[in-house]
Amino acid sequence: MNSKRQTTFCERTTAVRQLATFNLQVSTALLFGALSVLCGQVFADAAVHATPVGSFTLVEPMKQFRKQQTATLLPNGKVLVAGGAPFIPSATSELYDPVTASWANSGPLATGREFHTATLLQDGRVAVTGGQSANQLLASTEIYDTPSGRWLRAGNLNQARELHTATLLTSGLVLVAGGFLDVSSAEVLDPTSGQWGNTGSMIAPRYQHTATLLTNGTVLVTGGLNANDFLASAEIYDPKTELWTNTGSMHVPRAGHTASLLADGRVLVTGGDGVGTASEIYDPSTGRWTFTGTPLVSRESHTATVLPTGKVLVTGGLNEVHAAIACDSELYDVVSGTWSRTGALNCGTDIRLLCCQTATSWWWAERPPEPLLPIGPRFTIIPPEIGMLLAHWRSPARGSRGSH
Q1: Which terminus of the chain is less hemmed in, N or C, by CB atoms within 10 Å?
Q2: Percent of all residues in the chain with a pLDDT value above 70, rounded to a whole number
Q3: Taking all residues of the chain, what is their mean pLDDT, rounded to a whole number?
Q4: How far is CA 384 from the centre of its chain?
Q5: Ramachandran assignment for 366, one of left (phi > 0), alpha (psi -120 to 50 degrees), beta (any other)
Q6: How many C-beta atoms lie closer than 10 Å to residue 279's C-beta?
Q7: Which CA distances in Å does 165 have to 67, 233, 294?
Q8: Is the pLDDT of residue 318 over 50?
């Protein structure tokens, strides 16, 4: 494994605008924002279920182009999208109503941010934590009040962080762990007081990892990155003791992967930076990992959604060369341990290309000019069948993450 971290596609920007829901018989898996394709690099278009079963179709665009935003399914069935931006962190939020298939602006955040987390609390509010704004790490926390549509400030994290995880514990507290670049610390938010308290640190620092609440109330953290390499290690957090313990390591180091809690309490991990790698299943009763079926498409920074049927829908993300979007979708069958293809995303549909750069702005084609901050991109043309133009960039302040 290359010891030097290469900048992932999640740390770049693209001129893609895609948002989707997936219709599978009686269920709809919402794939908005952070739950959506392209590692949260979802811009203004959307998709909603359509017949025939297993297909995607575009619907009304969001009010604002976004990347690296979060999306949270609320108890009332609406979806809250917060933060992200075209090239500067946004302080806006909006709501998607699946009944009317339309978007409406909601209250503004106090601080624009990206690479943050959003956690649905037990009382229906949403806690947004950390992230970054203009290359500055954030420690601030804001809580969204669903009935009023307003954001209220809460206490600051003890350590500013981005690319961390946030997990709602059975107690109602929120566990935040890790973050870019070498963060091993963890802390817990009490939503009642809005204050943070330190808890035990992870054994290994990591970011772009996963955190999964297990059926016994503990939290499984897997993979990710640190300053030196990809990680295969996994560890368990026990809220009762506030301590972390090592558990079995995955067979393959992974980052930008997904971890899905299955109905039987096991955890399915798929994708990541391991090219063409089989998925793995973690058994909490033994603390061991076993290989299962190999996905049809190698991908990272994708989404994985457990459907009511028990199958797992995987879609979007980046392919094995990290330069094109994986438009294919597939289903994992827990019983057989196999993958099968299902309806693909509408990649290349209604995409507005990034066409022009002046000394002070970028312009989007097929729409009025929109001033944006110059960030010194280089352009790569993707084959016509993909149908998009990607702007690859690296922020000087974040250059230590690696090079292209």
Answers
A1: N
A2: 70
A3: 77
A4: 27
A5: left
A6: 25
A7: 18, 16, 26
A8: yes
Cβ–Cβ < 8 Å for 15, 377 = no
Query: One-letter amino acid identity for 383?
Result: P
Q: Is 52 a residue whose pLDDT tops 80?
A: no
Secondary structure, 3-state, 294-315: CCCCCCECCEEEECCCCCEEEE
Buried b (16+ CB within 10 A) or exposed e, 324-349: bbbbbbbbbebeeeebeebbbbbbbe
Residue 378, pLDDT > 80, answer no
What span, in angstroms and rounded, lies between the C-alpha atoms of 378 and 367? 22
- Answer with the residue of higher pLDDT: 19 or 74: 74
Structure tokens of 4?
């030097």
| pTM > 0.85: yes or no | no
Q: Residue 233: which of 248, 218, 211, 212 has the closest Cα? A: 248
Q: Is 73 helix (H, G, I), strand (E, B) or coil?
A: strand
Give the whole-angstrom CA distance, residue 327 versus residue 316. Answer: 5
User: pLDDT grade, residue 283 (50/70/90)?
Assistant: very high
Is the distance from CB of 218 to CB of 167 less than 8 angstroms?
A: no
Mapping DSSP to helix (H, G, I), strand (E, B) and coil, where does residue 397 land? helix
Beta strands 354-357; 102-105: pairing state: unpaired
Residue 293: pLDDT over 70: yes
Q: How many residues does the chain have?
A: 404
pLDDT of residue 324: 64
Is the pLDDT higher at 351 or at 348?
348
Contact 175, 202 (CB under 8 A): no
Q: Which residue is associated with the tokens 């390591």? A: 249
Are 109 and 130 in contact, with CB atoms under 8 Å apart? no
Residue 368 has pLDDT above 90, yes or no: no
Higher pLDDT residue, 14 or 287? 287
Task: List strand residue ranges (DSSP E) for 163-320, in order.
Answer: 165-168, 174-177, 186-190, 195-199, 210-213, 219-222, 234-238, 243-247, 257-261, 267-271, 280-283, 288-291, 303-306, 312-315
